[in-house]
Design goal:
5-stranded mixed beta sheet
Length: 418
């Protein structure tokens, strides 16, 4: 089996912990396990869903795939960050689980540590998966797992607030028209837009659609395009079109602001769809616009199903059977509906939308999305992201100009990724 060269494990764990605090992914909770009787041995499965116990639909799906493969599956759910660290240590000790479900930016960290098999080596078919979603698990032309689903970001909007301000949502097509809409809303006595600019991965996650939508690349944080994106957010805060609270907002607290009904727009993810339905707000969903129009690439969240390196390579055939079962169309639809994810294949997406038409804007958004570790960034991404969210904090707080904040971030990122 193909292995990458082993790197300094402690450094990798630090990078993984930084990358693991991500949007739209499972958080917190205790470990749980589920299993089903079979005569073909026991296979271990780790995932980042400690909130799902043995009676959950997710655990039962895993059990059924074990039965289909003729084995017992022993499942454990860990907090996302804890899972990453445990996976790295287990790989170092040669005691990896048979199957490992991890947040997509973590794939590059585990692959870089040499503990994941490639899909090619395993004979795992990836042809049905959407290329932009699959890219989050690719490094140097190799693919290290398959996505079970994706989430991303868009703009929820309050139709009542926009209507009262005389704003036609159809007119919002680019940054200029969006800013015009925010100006009209605030002039009418309501609030413009809320988002998360906190100094963590959540801040980078929410800024990336604007950064990428400017045409900027993560390898050049201080490009003219990148500074334009930073200036956009900074000006919104400076001019009262976005609240100062964005500097400390998580995606949860910014969502709470939107649910007050005072805001015209709130940037958030697929996972809030049921919440906004329950809120009673007359809402719509708008794909985040790029600077000059069209959809901006938003970052993908979601997990990848991977098969770690084992000393007993005879186990791989059964692991692949389990993986294929969990990523069949029926399984993807069930799983992704449970997790509020968009499925990673066209066939499963069509089945989701047929059942829940409200998902169509999210399917469109995911079609334009990209992985944070794409562009072959791999384990460089968390190092760059830390500087990116720092620049956002410095600029929006007024501590530095957008240009100065971007220059400092680029210098630090270049040093960190040498």
């Amino acid at each position: 089996m193909t292995k990458k060269h082993m790197r300094g494990m402690a450094a990798v764990i630090v990078a993984a912990a930084t990358a693991a605090t991500l949007a739209g992914c499972a958080t917190g909770g205790t470990t749980s396990s589920s299993s089903t009787s079979a005569a073909g041995g026991t296979y271990t499965f780790w995932d980042p869903y400690p909130q799902f116990d043995a009676t959950s639909a997710w655990a039962k799906r895993i059990d059924s795939c074990g039965t289909e493969a003729g084995v017992t599956i022993e499942r454990t759910g860990y907090d996302t960050t804890d899972l990453t660290n445990k996976a790295l240590l287990a790989g170092q000790q040669g005691s990896s689980p048979d199957l490992l479900l991890v947040d997509n930016p973590v794939v590059s960290t585990l692959a870089d540590a040499g503990i994941l098999n490639t899909t090619k080596d395993l004979g795992l078919d990836t042809s049905a998966f959407e290329a932009n979603i699959l890219a989050a698990g690719q490094i140097d032309g190799d693919t290290f797992g398959v996505p079970i689903g994706a989430n991303t970001l868009a703009l929820y909007y309050n139709k009542s607030v926009l209507s009262a301000a005389g704003v036609d949502i159809a007119s919002v097509k680019d940054w200029s028209s969006l800013t015009d809409a925010l100006t009209k809303v605030t002039a009418a006595g309501k609030k413009g837009i809320t988002f998360s600019a906190i100094g963590t991965e959540e801040g980078s996650f929410q800024f990336l659609p604007w950064f990428w939508g400017s045409g900027a690349k993560l390898t050049e944080l201080n490009s003219t395009a990148g500074v334009d994106a930073l200036t956009l957010w900074t000006d919104w805060v400076k001019n009262g079109l976005a609240p100062n609270s964005v500097l400390n907002n998580t995606q949860t607290t910014t969502w709470q602001e939107f649910l007050t009904g005072e805001y015209a727009f709130g940037e958030n993810g697929t996972w809030q769809l049921q919440s906004v339905k329950d809120s009673g707000i007359d809402y719509g969903i708008l794909t985040i616009p790029a600077k000059t129009g069209g959809p901006a690439p938003a970052p993908t969240g979601g997990e990848f199903l991977t098969i770690p390196v084992q000393s007993d390579t005879a186990r791989y055939d059964t692991s692949v059977k389990i993986a294929n079962c969990l990523t069949s169309t029926a399984a993807l639809v069930d799983t992704d509906n449970t997790l509020s994810y968009v499925a990673p294949t066209k066939e499963a997406q069509a089945a989701q939308v047929a059942k829940t038409p409200d998902l169509q804007p999210w399917v469109d958004a995911v079609a334009s999305a990209k992985g944070r570790t794409s562009d072959n960034l791999g384990t460089k991404y968390p190092l760059i992201s830390e500087q990116l969210w720092g620049a956002v904090q410095q600029s929006l707080s007024g501590s530095q100009t957008p240009q100065a904040a971007a220059d400092q971030a680029q210098s630090a990122a270049a040093t960190a990724t040498k």
